[in-house]
Design brief:
This protein is an alpha+beta fold. It is 47% helix and 18% strand.
């Protein structure tokens, strides 16, 4: 009897130990336990720590309550401005209702992943390329709202969604590079033009300041020469500006300027002075005779020019009377014959008095001018 009793006690103790081992459960701090008794959900969700369930009747399901980091596979799409891009993202979420996450959806992780992919493709189609590249914060907020709306019924809360990378085709990358280069070039030219404008204003102010003091320009020239001469690897060509000449002219004293007209007056020809060998000026009574003596020479030169120029039909001219003979010259004036061998018969002759200088100057031979030939009388 005692032996049977001991065997029964040992058997009951072993069954109790096995029951305790099957009924005892430990829930971790970051987990929650959902109990299904005979397939029906119990209202109480087991918290972290030691808990007991009925073996064979209750089934405990543990749900992780930590934030889950899930990468979203890269999605190909076409933006609103017709650019093909490839975008990948990452999503952060956590379970806030263990019972709903276990009952409402079969696999909440897979459901969230698929929802994130479809929402990402939708965001790509609604956005421009510039928004994907520069305005990602706004896109992240929109993507978070699109995923969080259906996930609330699953007991899942979307904590954050981030777009990681945007892959562009090589042709688009080259086009964007050219655009950026052109923009940089435009800004560089604008900055250069602005610098030139400011420099021109400063140079104009410097020029106006130097114009009042010509010596400042010469000092600036010498400073430039010194700056260039510091490097001994080049040949220096020094110009000689006209402003320096003007500066030197203004710097000269007044004495040399007064001496200049005197030297010019010395170089001017002096008026003819009366010399013993020069003939005296003719008196008023001798001037008509001298003019009468010069007329035959002028007439002879005019006749030679008319003889060289052929005339087709010479027109007869009325006879002209020879001028009256001048009054008798003084005793010192000698007359010369005025007839020329080329004059035709019947032409009148005129005598020209010699110049007064020939009679007054004993060293000079008397100069006689050829008389002016008289014109033949045309028949009436």
């Amino acid at each position: 009897m005692v032996q049977d009793l001991v065997i029964a006690v040992v058997t009951a103790a072993s069954a109790g130990v096995l029951y305790l081992a099957a009924a005892a459960k430990i829930v971790k701090q970051y987990e929650r336990g959902v109990v299904l008794r005979l397939g029906r959900l119990r209202d109480d969700v087991r918290g972290p720590g030691f808990t007991m369930v009925v073996p064979g009747i209750d089934r405990l399901r543990k749900v992780n309550m930590q934030i889950v980091t899930m990468p979203v596979p890269a999605q190909d799409g076409i933006t609103r401005d017709n650019v093909t891009v490839r975008v990948d993202a990452v999503i952060y979420f956590k379970v806030v209702d263990a019972a709903s996450a276990l009952i409402q959806v079969e696999d909440y992780r897979f459901a969230v992943s698929q929802m994130a992919q479809t929402s990402l493709r939708s965001i790509i189609g609604k956005s421009d390329l510039d928004d994907l590249l520069s305005n990602r914060e706004k896109l992240n907020q929109g993507l978070e709202l699109m995923i969080d709306s259906p996930a609330v019924g699953w007991g899942v809360q979307i904590d954050r969604v981030e777009i990681k990378d945007v892959s562009l085709p090589e042709t688009m990358k080259r086009s964007m590079a050219r655009q950026a280069e052109a923009d940089r070039e435009r800004r560089a030219r604008v900055i250069n033009a602005d610098a030139e404008l400011q420099a021109s204003k400063k140079l104009a102010e410097a020029a106006s300041a130097m114009s009042s003091q010509p010596a400042a320009l010469q000092l600036r020239l010498l400073q430039t020469v010194v700056a260039v001469a510091a490097e001994k690897n080049s040949t220096l060509v020094l110009p000689f500006p006209v402003e320096l000449l003007r500066f030197l002219e203004r710097a000269q004293p007044s004495a040399p300027q007064d001496a200049a007209p005197a030297s010019q007056q010395a170089l001017r020809p002096s008026p003819p002075s009366a010399s013993p060998t020069q003939a005296p000026r003719p008196s008023p009574t001798q001037r008509p005779a001298q003019a009468q003596a010069q007329r035959p020479a002028q007439g002879q030169a005019q006749a030679q020019r008319s003889a060289q120029t052929p005339q087709a039909h010479p027109r007869p001219r009325p006879p002209q009377r020879s001028p009256a003979p001048p009054p008798a010259p003084p005793a010192s004036v000698s007359s010369a014959p005025a007839s020329t061998p080329s004059s035709p018969p019947g032409a009148s002759s005129a005598s020209a008095p010699s110049s007064p200088s020939s009679s007054s100057d004993p060293t000079r031979p008397p100069r006689s001018k050829p008389p002016k030939p008289s014109k033949p009388l045309a028949p009436h």
